[in-house]
Request: fold
Amino acid sequence: MEVKQFARQMIEFQQATFNNTFNTIGMVQDQSEKMVNTFMDQNPMLPKQGRDAFNEWLKVCKKAREDYKKAIDAGFKNLEGYLAEAPKS
Reply:
């Protein structure tokens, strides 16, 4: 097996593993958000400021999660480009 092909397969495996793990963590976070939203909806004692703060925090977390995914995807793309440009061995 060619070294370049082996490296490409290894990177594809790592990328698939990352994507599966990232998607699983995202599902857990989304489920937690639903659970907390249900709790907040059923709790009349919680002030509006608390709900607003939580919702703002959720937006920041989702944006950070999306930015992280984009950065990792860009890293994998750069790595694939590097392999494409690498001399045959």
